[in-house]
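Pilot study result, target chain (266 residues):
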Amino acid sequence: MASAACQHWPEYLIEAAGLGGFMIAAGGLATLLEHPASPVRQVVGSALLRRALMGTGMAATAMALVYSPWGKRSGAHFNPALTLTFLRLGKVALWDALFYVLAQFIGGLLGLLLLGAALGPALADPHVSHVATVPGPGGPWPAFVAEAAMSFVLMATVLTLTNIRVAARYTGLAVGALLLLYITFEAPLSGMSINPARTIASAVSAWRWDAIWVYFTAPPLGMLLAAELYQFLRGGRGVLCAKLHHHNSQRCIFRCSWASDPGMPG
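Predicted structure:
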């Protein structure tokens, strides 16, 4: 534990700062698009169009994080479910995974609390509600299925692209495209989380805990199922690394075989 903390603390801080920045972007965009006093909200009357604008902004934020020098260094997880799946796949050491997850929870919460201090009551307005992720009118079970399915597709996409040399550099673009689609079309079902740390940040900030179990169980389950299926289809052949972007000169703290595997497709 001490060795991991001493050697890899920059990556842990990056994971905290990255999710913190993501939450600031989410809260800021939601306030701009949904607060009744916002001029954007008054001009854009369509809820679907506002979700599409929200999805575009969050997709751009995610892609910027993945392709930033910081994201290239930490691997750009910013999601405990993603980190724990790579732990299951043997690509992340136990203490690194635990510190990553802790950093993600702390960073997401701090980011939203800082935004709340800056925006004041606007972030708490019922139309914004600290960007809390809560089940839609269908209740928790449709939200659970939707969260698990989205997480499955996201993890399957990440594993497929990051293990094909000619396609790996486009992983961030694919993740952004999925976020755009999810936020635009799925958000009414579950609020679109796929990230326990993202959900807990909003839940603590808003003190709103509607069906919180959905967002702690469905994303890890969906991602772990995708990992198991991926390995089964590949005949048990291992995953190369836990980074979303490996075409860079940043150090890699994972159990990485990116450079040494001659059988990598592409």
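One observation from the pilot: The chain has a mean pLDDT of 93. A full batch analysis is planned for the follow-on phase.
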